[in-house]
Design brief:
The complex is a heterodimer of chains A (390) and B (345). Chain A is built from 14 helices and eleven strands. Chain A is an alpha/beta fold and 390 residues long. Chain A has a single domain, classed as 3-Layer(aba) Sandwich (Peroxisomal Thiolase, Chain A, domain 1), CATH 3.40.47. In chain A, helix 1 packs across helix 2. Chain A is globular, with a radius of gyration of 19 Å. With 345 residues, chain B is an alpha+beta fold. Chain B has two domains: 3-45 and 80-185, Hotdog Thioesterase (Thiol Ester Dehydrase, Chain A); 224-340, no CATH class. The longest helix of chain B has 13 residues, at 20-32. In chain B, helix 1 (20-32) runs antiparallel to helix 4. Chain B has helices at residues 20-32, 47-57, 67-72, 102-112, 224-231; strands at residues 2-6, 11-13, 39-40, 79-80, 117-127, 131-132, 138-152, 155-168, 171-185, 236-240, 246-247, 262-266, 270-279, 291-298, 303-308, 321-328, 334-340. Chain B is extended, with a radius of gyration of 27 Å. Classes of the chains: A alpha/beta (390), B alpha+beta (345). At the A-B interface, helix 4, helix 5, helix 6 and strand 5 of A face strand 13, strand 14 and strand 15 of B. Bound molecules: zinc ion. Residues 240, 242-243, 245, 254, 256-257, 259 of chain B line the site of zinc ion (ZN).
Chain lengths: 390, 345
């Protein structure tokens, strides 16, 4: 067990509707999600003294605080690397609460990712930037590899070659997510499940990835309220205890293009997150009842199952084909529908689903979901959480 | 005297856009305020600055720097190069914008309306007379015109026309018309955004076939040798000047021994496909799709990405023997590309 384990909890969650065109500013989305999360926690905005978001978020902590009428903030922090930041925002909050730097911390992420700047399109500016990231991107974007999908596809091809995985193996992740989304009224793909045949028939994005291997693009906002477990016990909902929280960056790490390591079939940064989570929580894969695994592209869901120890290297396709990730399986995953089915809010909507599972209020509730694992963006320096019921 | 430098930015009219009214209102208010208060130059017109400027621009006319010669000229004494007008009122390294600067006010209004990117389109200077050494110059700015929104190659935007006037006391000595385009980037992308991370969109419509200029690499001191190599028809791989470690992509400090004296070797240009993709969508500026992109493991042991040509995408496989060739993208940039290896190994 580590220093933060169990001391902080998620006491409130909030989100806007998930759409393709929100019709309002990103700041409004952030403010609405934050207000909803504070209402859920039974806390007043004036009680917030810390805020955490992504470096990619366009809404400053001060702007969100002003909209909510918050008072003084003693802690504010941001995490880099796109969706890899998701669980790390809660880690930052938990560390602040544990060390006494803040008492109530809001983590938020809001964007018009579909109606505004779409991450799935080629963004020439990221290769030209006069930063180390711009130089890194200059080894892929100008050479034609200019979208996240294409960058993941390069891993996927090698993974298939090494382990004999097929496009159908990736497709089963999409089918499972969409099945879960189909019964979630908040999901964009509510009541719209897909079949494996539809996955196979969907157009190519970047071979070996079909359209249905790629997550949605969404408009929306999510906010999460973190406070001490002690204080959370007096609030309306049972605490979702932050049993473990970790970040990870591997050796020879790039953002989306770690192509120069000896092996191209793993996500060592996620392996590092997993080892820390199990160590902090004093738990192992066998102790987790639900997995909310970051699913911007299906192949990395397989790799995560392997890195986190749910199955051996190259065995995820059998694990999934055997039904382990279904609602009645050994490790139901993405019970809200994931980013493929519910919405792409950079992983933050996965954390709220983890909280609902721990509270016992999820639409696709898993029986006795005592410990839930949540992961953040893959292919980038990343993070993860174990959330537990008391 | 008039000199004009302009870069063509093709534009055609577009229908009314959101936020038009707020932009028009701001334009009217700021134009109505007229000229800003005169902002004095930091130093009077002076010889050292003229010396530096004339040298940098290769202007050897002695009437600017040689007092004896200048005495005998039509000016009867030292004068400053007219094109230096703007130099005298530059704000230095950390300029403090004037509170009544109309350019600042108008660009803020356009930022607010979502037109966050900027490009200068043209600039025209008129010189009324030569400046003499020791004269004190001040400048005013006035917003002359705001037109738009226009649909341009860069995105929807507004053209701002500003007029700068340089004065000595109340006498106008030089003027400049400066036009710039404030635009909303065509693909909604902000030049200064951090590195994005992931999404496809499995609700995607058929993406609009978009072409555009090819994406160019950021090149700096650490990476210039590579791009100079491709331009010269060489695939260069960084080699540590101390321990000999080969490394790609390169960097300024050897991760093995810490040395900061990288050299390079020229790769033989042969390797095998380690992984590859066939990109179909979305469109990639400057590329024809579908496009095969291969991660190639060189015989030297490092991996390099590049387009793979000369083979049907369905025939590509991991392990395929390939060789490098080079494709020039523009005057500065040449990309390494791959094709199946034809000669014996
Ligand atoms: Zn070395």
């Amino acid at each position: 067990m580590s220093g933060v384990s169990g001391i902080a909890s998620i006491a409130g969650i909030g989100a806007t509707e998930f759409s393709k065109e929100s019709g309002r500013t990103e700041l409004q989305l952030a403010a609405e999600a934050t207000r909803t999360a504070l209402d859920d926690a039974g806390l007043d905005p004036s009680e917030v003294d810390g805020m955490v978001t992504f470096t990619m978020d366009t809404n400053t902590e001060t702007a969100v605080a002003r909209e909510l009428g918050m008072g003084e903030l003693s802690f504010f922090s941001r995490v880099h690397y796109g969706g890899g930041a998701a669980c790390a925002t809660v880690q930052q909050a938990a560390m602040a609460v544990t060390t006494g730097m803040a008492e109530v911390v809001v983590c938020y992420r809001a964007f018009n990712e579909r109606s505004g700047q779409r991450f799935g399109q080629v963004q020439p500016a990221v290769a030209g930037a006069a930063t180390s990231a711009g130089v890194d991107n200059s080894w892929s974007y100008p050479l034609g590899l200019g979208t996240p999908g294409a960058q993941v596809a390069m891993f996927a091809r090698r993974y298939m070659h090494t382990f004999g995985a097929t496009s159908e193996d990736f497709g089963r992740v999409a089918v499972t997510d969409r099945k879960h989304a189909a019964t979630n009224p908040n999901a964009w793909f509510y009541q719209r499940p897909i079949t494996l045949a539809e996955h196979q028939d969907s157009k190519w994005i970047t071979e070996p990835l079909h359209l249905l291997d790629c997550c949605q693009e969404s408009d929306g906002g999510v906010a999460i309220v973190v406070t001490s477990t002690e204080r959370a016990r007096d609030l309306p909902h049972p605490p979702a205890v932050v049993q473990a929280a970790a970040q990870g960056s591997g050796s020879d790490q790039f953002t989306m293009t770690s192509y120069y390591r000896d092996d191209l079939t793993g996500l060592p940064e996620m392996g590092l997150v997993g080892r820390q989570l199990w160590q902090q929580a004093g738990l192992g894969p066998q102790d987790v009842q639900v997995g909310i695994l970051y699913d911007h592209f299906t192949p990395f869901v397989l790799v995560q199952l392997e890195e986190l120890g749910f199955c051996g290297r190259g065995e995820a396709r059998d694990f999934i084909a055997d039904g382990a990730v279904e609602l009645d399986g050994r490790l139901p995953i993405n019970t809200h529908g994931g980013q493929l089915g519910e919405a792409y809010i950079h992983g933050m909507n996965g954390i709220t689903e983890g909280v609902r599972q721990v509270r016992g209020t999820a639409v696709n509730q898993v029986d006795e979901a005592h410990n839930v694992l949540v992961t953040a963006g893959t292919g980038v320096p990343t993070s993860g959480l174990v959330l537990s019921a008391e | 005297m008039t000199s004009t430098a302009s870069s063509a930015t093709a534009a055609k009219d577009t229908g009314p856009a959101r936020d038009n009214e707020s932009v028009h209102a701001a334009a009217e208010r700021i134009s109505a305020a007229g000229e800003s208060r005169p902002r004095p130059g930091r130093d009077p017109v002076n010889l050292p600055m003229i010396h530096n400027w004339a040298e940098a621009l290769g202007d050897g006319n002695p009437v600017y720097t040689n007092a004896e010669y200048a005495e005998t000229s039509v000016h009867g004494g030292l004068v400053a190069p007219p094109a230096m007008a703007q130099v005298w009122t530059m704000g230095g390294l950390h300029p403090e914008p004037a509170p009544d600067d109309p350019m600042r006010a108008m660009t803020a209004a356009l930022d607010e309306a979502g037109y966050t990117s900027v490009v200068a389109t043209n600039c025209e200077q008129t010189y009324h007379r030569y400046l003499r050494h020791g004269e004190h110059v001040a400048v005013t700015t006035k917003l002359e015109e705001v037109t738009g929104p226009k649909r341009t190659g860069l995105g929807e935007g507004w053209f701002l026309t500003l007029r700068y006037t340089w004065y000595v006391d109340t006498e106008a000595v030089a003027e400049m018309m400066f036009r710039l385009l404030k635009f909303r980037p065509a693909d909604g992308d902000e030049p200064a955004r951090p590195t994005p991370e992931p999404a496809g969109d499995n609700t995607a419509d058929e993406s609009d076939p978009r072409t555009g200029s090819p994406i160019l690499p950021a090149i700096n001191r650490d990476t210039a040798y590579f791009w100079e190599g491709t331009a010269a028809g060489e695939l260069r791989i960084q080699r540590c000047g101390r321990c000999g470690l080969l490394r790609h992509p390169p960097g300024p400090m050897c991760s093995e021994c810490g040395a900061t004296k990288p050299t390079h070797l020229v790769a033989c240009g042969h390797g095998q496909v380690y992984s590859y993709v066939v990109h179909h969508r979305p469109p990639v500026p400057g590329k024809e799709l579908p496009l095969v992109i291969a991660l190639v493991e060189l015989d030297e042991g490092v991996r390099v990405l590049g387009e793979l040509h000369g083979i049907d995408p369905d025939e590509v496989h991991i392990g395929l023997d390939v060789e490098v060739f080079f494709r020039q993208v523009d005057e500065q940039v040449t990309l390494p590309c791959w094709r199946p290896r034809t000669e014996g190994k």
